[in-house]
Amino acid sequence: MEPKFFIPEEHKQKFQYTSNVTQTERINELNDFIFKSQDVRECKRAEAVKLRLLGISYQDIAKKLGVSIGFVAKFQRQYTARGLDGIKLKYKGSKAYLTPTQKAEIVHWINCPKNCKLSALKRHLQDNYDVAFKSKESYYQILRESQIYWRQGKKDKKHKN
After folding, report:
1. What is the DSSP string of 95-136?
2. What whole-number distance in Å separates Cα of residue 160 and Cα of residue 58?
3. Do the Cβ atoms of 49 and 30 come closer than 8 Å?
4. d(Cα 91, Cα 144) in Å, to the nearest integer?
């Protein structure tokens, strides 16, 4: 005998996902998601849910994926309630300060021999694009995209004789 319970109308949408989908369809859906996802965190979440659907214990999944048991349980619950939306990352990142065209112009500018210093890049971005990054890492990323590689020099220690 199947247990019967009442779900209020406003909450039915939350539980609608799990009612009409077979386990095989869920596993296939998760496999497709894992194959198409470009984010390792989403893949790990989907893999945990898939292994749980296959009947593997929380402890074994946690060991295999290098995550906590709570991680497995959390994404199992979220998948059960919301489907793939429960596994997907919510954070989409911030808007870029520079357009791809502006970046291409800057890369071209950097490739001139006299412009490969960090201080020159900072001035150029501030003067021409009104952009000043908080972190030096953003400037380093632009230099890497320009295929400019450098190493900060070390100060020589004077040896006492």
Report:
1. PPSS-HHHHHHHHHHHTSGGG-SHHHHHHHHHHHH----SSH
2. 62
3. yes
4. 25
Check if the beta carbon of residue 74 is closer than 8 Å to that of residue 82: no
Largest CA distance in the chain: 92
Instruction: Name the token pair of 160.
Output: 């006492």
Sequence-separated (6 or more) residues with CB below 8 Å from residue 67? 44, 48, 61
- Dist. CA 19–CA 98, nearest whole Å: 46
**For the segment 35-85, what is each residue's pLDDT rounded down to a tens digit?**
998 889 999 999 999 999 999 999 999 999 999 999 999 999 999 898 999
Amino acid at site 154: K
